[in-house]
TrEMBL record, chain B:
Coiled coil: none annotated. It comes from Plebeiibacterium sediminum. This is SufE family protein. It holds the Pfam family SufE. Residues 11-129 form the Fe-S metabolism associated domain. Belongs to the SufE family. InterPro entries: Fe-S_metab-assoc_dom.
Length: 424, 140
């Protein structure tokens, strides 16, 4: 019920929060927003794919290479120590951002995909036996389907799928029916990247735990839009991508409860993750290093820390409020277009609108919008099962970030109407 | 007409458009006017799946010349398919293999043919040439 509470809180504080966002001040931190594309000012609506980076994040990454560059954790020399401190400080920032109880419960990865592959492999090797069951949902990104399919194939386990309804919401009755004493893990997304649906994650976690199963939440489309508190949620594992929350590409994290991270077998072997190596036996390093083989993306992780500072300073609640306003505004405006079909019509949505207009192919619409400087995504959004459910090849997707404006949305709506007219 | 002459003709048609919108409106028109694809050839083996859009291509030989039939689910892509067919259909395998499709670049559609665009067009051009190569091998 956490998300219901959030909606209510938002309503009560609408006025003061809307004022808390100084959009000009925010936009000034993203130089790329001043781009001119095909002679038109850029309006960027592909934020669910990746957000732009504020200047301070880019500067931070540069600063690491200019002033701090050194390999971490092993060195006795000054630069190595400084780099290690900065890297571990970034980990602390992620820890506080997610409200994890320990910093070593945060494993840096190259992104959410790598985090899920890590978990699928290590969890599978440690806990899964033949005929055990993993539950995912129809609305998962391919990254939260394929690693589990691969693991199930290896371990002869079974993958169960929670279906969705016509509003693009999880069918919770079907979820209940899937839960059994064979269920070892539930792996679901917080917010659908293709539909924008915000799932009732607190409720799903509660039910999963009542069933004595564990749960992983894919928060790739959540942490940048709403407050995520892993202790309050009592979630066992949670993953997110750095580049979708204003951080550098090639960054991300897996959060896991200490108990399970300690029990699980490591994923990749190599440097950093070992305590001692002989040809007879290798003992693994302690958390979090056990899961961070090889030299990590040092500058990237420190850049991610800076991105989290940016988000924290603007305030995640303020961001949620502002983006919710944008989403509501865009939904209303888009619905005025003749032949508009929005996919994902849940009352609980976050920052994503997926749509088609009449029978116009998304590629055609996307190509024409691009010519007007309007960047949207077209296709199946790496979520083919959703497209199959709706019986469509793909959609257009507009997704918002804190730097988008209502004026940009007006341009988008005008552009779509213009293209719709051209195609007749 | 030779492939070279057809390409020159296409380029001339497109130079009359000042606005990108007119250019794309014309592509849409070409797409709509493309001869319907014979459904008996709408087979998996004739499908070039480009992730973003699909292209179907069928080819046959008659009197030493190669003829193409094509389609796409995206109308802009279909317009470009129509241009490709106009340039290459009814030509000999040698001519198809020896001529570069320079018009694409000249009329500003190169962006749709970069290997990363995943709209099926790059695969289609490759397939058109492969057909020519196969028929040529058969003739020899």
């Amino acid at each position: 019920m956490h998300y219901v509470v959030r909606m209510l809180q938002e309503k009560d504080t609408l006025v003061c929060n809307a004022m808390a966002i100084d959009i000009n001040k925010i936009r000034a931190q993203f130089p790329i927003l001043d781009s001119v594309i095909h002679g038109k000012p850029l309006a960027y609506f592909d934020n669910a794919a990746t957000t732009h980076k504020p200047e301070r994040v880019v500067n931070k990454v540069n600063e690491v290479y200019y002033t701090l560059n050194s390999n971490i954790h092993r060195g006795v020399h000054y630069l190595s120590n400084q780099a290690t401190l900065a890297y571990e400080e970034a980990r602390n920032k992620v820890q506080h951002f997610l409200n994890a109880s320990q910093s070593y419960e945060v494993i840096f990865t190259s992104g959410a995909t790598a985090a899920i592959n890590l978990l699928a492999t290590s969890f599978g090797d440690t806990y899964i036996e033949e005929d055990d069951e993993i539950i995912v949902s129809t609305m998962e990104h391919h990254s939260n389907i394929v690693p589990w399919q691969m693991m199930c194939k290896r371990k002869k386990a079974v993958l169960k799928v929670i279906p969705i309804n016509e509003k693009g919401e999880l069918d919770l009755e079907a979820f209940e029916a899937h839960l059994s004493d064979k269920t070892k893990l539930v792996a679901v997304t917080y917010v659908s990247n293709a539909l924008g649906t915000e799932n009732p994650i607190p409720e799903i976690i509660k039910r999963t735990h009542q069933n004595n199963s564990l749960i992983m939440v894919d928060a790739s489309q959540a942490v940048q839009h709403l407050k995520v508190d892993v202790q309050e949620l009592d979630v066992d594992f949670l993953v997110f991508s750095g580049h979708k929350i204003y951080g550098p590409t090639g960054t991300g994290a897996l959060y896991g409860k200490e108990k399970y991270l300690n029990e699980m077998e490591p994923w990749q072997g190599g440097g950093e993750m070992i305590k001692s190596v002989t040809f007879e036996e290798t003992t693994y390093n302690e958390l979090p290093f056990k899961f961070e083989a090889g030299t990590p993306n040092i500058a990237g992780a420190i850049g991610l820390g800076e991105a989290i500072d940016f988000v924290s300073e603007v305030g995640i609640e303020n961001i949620a409020e502002y983006e919710h306003e944008l989403l509501t505004y865009a939904t209303e405006k888009l619905n005025t277009i003749d032949g508009m079909r929005i996919f994902g019509t849940s009352e609980h949505k976050s920052s994503v609108i997926s749509f088609l207009v009449k029978e116009i192919h998304p590629f055609d619409m996307g190509t024409m919008l691009d010519k007007m400087g309007l960047a949207v995504r077209t296709g199946h959004h790496c979520a083919q099962p959703i497209m199959d459910y709706f019986g469509i090849p793909g959609t257009l997707r507009a997704s918002f970030a804190v730097y988008n404006t209502k004026e940009e949305i007006d341009r988008l709506v005008e552009g779509i109407a213009k293209v719709a007219m051209l195609f007749g | 007409m030779t492939i070279k002459e057809i390409q020159e003709e296409i380029v001339e048609e497109f130079t009359s458009f000042d606005e990108w919108m007119d250019k794309y409106a014309y592509l849409i028109e070409l797409g709509n006017d493309l001869e319907p694809f014979d459904n008996q050839y709408r087979l998996d083996q004739n499908l070039l799946d480009g992730c973003q859009s699909k292209v179907w291509l069928h080819a046959w030989e008659e009197d030493g010349k190669i003829y193409y039939m094509g389609d796409s689910d995206a109308i802009i892509v279909k317009g470009i398919v129509a241009l490709m067919i106009r340039a290459l259909s009814g030509q000999t395998p040698d001519d198809i293999l020896n001529n570069e499709l320079s018009f694409v670049d000249e009329i500003g559609l190169k962006e749709h043919l970069s290997p990363t665009r995943s709209n099926g067009l790059v695969a289609m051009i490759k397939q058109m040439r492969l057909f020519a190569l196969a028929f040529k091998a058969k003739q020899a």
